[in-house]
Every structure is written in C-alpha cells, then in structure tokens.
Amino acid sequence: MNRYETMVIIDPALDQEKIDSVISRYTEMIKTDGEIITVDQWGKKRLAYPIKKKPTGYYVLYKYTAGNKVPQNLVNDMNINSSILRYMTLVVDKKALKQEQLDIAGAGKLLKEAEEKENAKVNE
User: Fold this and answer.
1) E strand intervals along 11-124
2) What angle do CA 23, 9, 16 make, to 5 degrees?
3) Of the candidates 51, 63, 60, the residue with the CA atom closest to the CA atom of residue 22
4) How far is residue 5's CA from residue 23's CA, in Å, rounded to a whole number?
5) pLDDT class for 108, splitting at 50, 70, 90?
6) pLDDT tens sequence across 53-64
7) What percent of the chain lies above the pLDDT cut of 90?
8) How far is CA 84 from CA 73, 76, 77, 96, in A?
9) What is the pLDDT at residue 117?
10) Three-class secondary structure of residue 12 per DSSP
11) What is the model's pLDDT at position 107?
C-alpha cells in the first residue's frame, strides 16, 4: 500500500450541500479499498488562472493510503464529473514521509520547550 495525496478543485458555483456530497463521495471511494489519513478542506480560493471561465475554486486535499486501484478509480470518476475543475494525485515519496514525521516531532519538541520556558517564567 502506498501513501497518496489527491488535490481536487471543485466548482465554487455549487451550493455547500453539493460540495459536501462531492467530498463525501470521494471519501467513500477511498475508504472502499484504502484508509484516509486526513481530508483538508481549504475552502474557496482564487485560481492562478481561470479554469472553465471560473476565477475561483473550492480546494480539497485528501491524504490516504491505498492500493494502486483507488487512485485510478478516482481519476476515472473525476474525468466524467462536471463539478470537478481540476485534480492531481501524487504518490508520496518515502523520504518525504520521513521528513514529515521529523517536522511533526520537531514542532512537538519546540512546543514542549516553549511551555517549559513559560512555566519557568511563571514560577519565578
């Protein structure tokens, strides 16, 4: 099983219920043969250039682990779904995973040190 990240840009002209249904549809597709790590909804953002004459898009980032078939099934479905403006799926490199874990561990360490310094100031 590989780790994947799929960024989807959804048509912002849809109402929030339809956007949520699109998000849950792909979440369920991933869950059928994989495991979701996170689903980050970035919300409505300005595009670098218009796509299908739309200046904005609703961004969603899926992070998940799955076999080879899940990303292909997502691509097949997104190609025919008219509410998807753009999408991109990447296989996360093992070096990037290690760096992400180090970043998380380092951030936790920095927070712990900051809390210790704050507690030391309060106790003085």
Assistant:
1) 34-51, 54-66, 84-91
2) 50
3) 60
4) 14
5) low
6) 999 999 999 999
7) 69
8) 15, 12, 10, 28
9) 75
10) coil
11) 67
Using alpha carbons, select from 67, 94, 96 the residue that is nearest to residue 1.
67
Give the Cβ contact number of residue 51 at 10 Å. 14
Residues 6+ apart with CB under 8 A from 15: none
The pair of three-digit structure tokens given for residue 19, joined into one six-digit string:
């956007």
Nearest to 30, CA basis, from 58, 6, 60: 6
Give 15's DSSP letter: -
Report the alpha-carbon distance of residue 41 to residue 19 in Å, rounded. Answer: 10
Name the residue among 2, 68, 12, 77 with its Cα closest to residue 41: 12
Please provide the distance, in angstroms rounded to a whole number, between the alpha carbons at the two ends of the chain: 52
Tokens representing 85 are 């403006």
The answer to whether residues 51 and 86 touch, using CB atoms and an 8 Å cutoff, is yes
Cα 49 to Cα 54: distance, rounded to the nearest angstrom: 9
- In the structure, what pLDDT confidence band is assigned to residue 21 with cuts at 50, 70 and 90? very high
